Each structure stands twice: as structure tokens, then as C-alpha cells.
């Protein structure tokens, strides 16, 4: 069982886990930035609960991604202080990613429920009814619905992977601290 691993092999596994978290965090950050930059920065001007939820969830996702990119797990653990810092960081990262995962599920559900109307709120309604080409929109409205849902699905997968590796990091640190 993993309880019989020596601290040296624990450190190697922790370093690999830390590098995986670093990569996942960067990918999640890029995904969140793409969603915000292409769609949400325009949608957030619409003052309703759904667009507010989109903004909060996406911002939290970006913050969780930054938390996951912390270099602490990829460093060799030497001191007790580093071990406790890693324990608290991996706990925070796990909880933050779980909240983001739930928020993303709600955002996807809301978007599917309103068929993307909130995403298209910045586009002028008068021109939407006339012809798709004449929409006055700050972004290309033709693929905004599918693009946003696709990016959120990718982000959802990355969040789930971050949760898995953050919990793995947490459990390894608990073993190193002999708790």
C-alpha cells in the first residue's frame, strides 16, 4: 500500500503531481480567459442574475486555476513549514475547484435552459429578427453559444482533473506529516 512509501518516493510523486497541477492550472486559466475575453466581457454589462453568475463563476474558475499553478508542490519538501503550506494550499485548491465545478455546471444548465439568450443579450434584438448577418453585436454571434458551451465543458473537465490531483497532493502531504 502507499503507506509504506519512504519520504523520498513521496517527494517524487508530489513533484510529479505538482507539475501536473501546474499544467492543468495554466490550461484552465487560458480557457477561462478565452471565455471572458470573447463573450463574458460583453455579457456582464447586462444586469441580470444569470450574467452575474457567469461572471462570478468564470472569475472564480480563473482564480482557482491560478491557485493550482502554485509552484509549491513541484518543489522538494524540506521543512515542516513547507509541508503545512502545501497541506493548506491543496485543501484550498480542492475546495475552490469543487465550487467552480458546481458553478460551471449551473452556468451550463442556465445556458442550455435559456438557449443562449443571455449570451446574445448585447446584440440588438431588432436586427436579430431581420437577418443573422445584420446583427449589431460586439462579437460574432453565430457560434457564441456552442463556443462558450464547449469552452465551459473543457473547463469542467480541467476542474475535475484539478480536484483529483489536488486531493492526491493533500493525501500525500497528510502521509508525509503522519496525520
From TrEMBL:
Gene Ontology cellular-component annotations: membrane
Subcellular location: Membrane
InterPro entries membership: Beta-casein-like
Stretches that traverse the bilayer: 19-40, 52-72, 84-110, 149-174
Protein name: TMM54 protein
Source organism per UniProt: Acrocephalus arundinaceus (Great reed-warbler)
Similarity remark: Belongs to the TMEM54 family.
Lineage: Eukaryota, Metazoa, Chordata, Craniata, Vertebrata
Keyword set includes Transmembrane helix: yes
The organism's place on the tree of life at top rank: Eukaryota
A Pfam match: BCLP
Membrane topology: Multi-pass membrane protein
Keyword field: Membrane, Transmembrane, Transmembrane helix
